[in-house]
Amino acid sequence: MKTNKVAIVTGGNAGLGFAIAKKLCAENIRTYIIGRNEEKTKLACEALGTNANYILHDLTDLSKIPDIIHHIKKKEGHIDILINNAGINMKKDFFEVTTSEFQDIIHTNLTSVFVISREVASVMQGQLKGSIVNISSMAAIYGIPQVPAYSASKAAIEGLTRSMAVDLAPYGIRVNCVAPGFIKTNMSSKALDNDPDRKHKVLSRTPLNKLGEPSDIAEAVFYYASEAAKYTTGTILPIDGGNSIGF
Fold it and tell me: Most CB atoms closer than 10 Å: which of 70, 109, 138, 156?
């Protein structure tokens, strides 16, 4: 059964973004994946089926974002859900991080989120409804070494979530945030398997004593995007097996 809803997932061609897009498509929501790698994005849409559509764009080019959102609005008539998932990271000694590298991560992880949210919210404002879900990280609350720019960007995303929630509430637009813990992806599994001490540290302070699945994040995002969360806005939901409160 068609829901007639339309969603946008940034960075939806791999990892957590793909899991989120998969869940939305499975719920019969027409889902637009914005990705910058043509091959990966096309293959992702083929795997997701007829509810998936793709738009090739590097979100660091802010100038074209308004046109992209206008295109989707013109084609579909409405936009109901925005998932701000795209982001980059860089692990580097604090003293070696250049100003340009720091600004690049802030530009991608924070400024582009603001710009696409502003444009989508302008569409939702006319509808008097909509849901925006941001993706944060444990780096927003932990002192994780060697990721100063990423940590700053994710802490800012949580602050932006609360601010947007207040500004957009009069228009029926809800804004929430999911903060993933250690999730079993190809990248994380490889990193932890190659570093037994770090893997032990991760699991020893995770009360559920296991890594999460990408589908765990997708289910949380879908909750926020659905009518089940119609009275929920401005919240940050850790999906981390208890890691953020583990001892």
Answer: 109
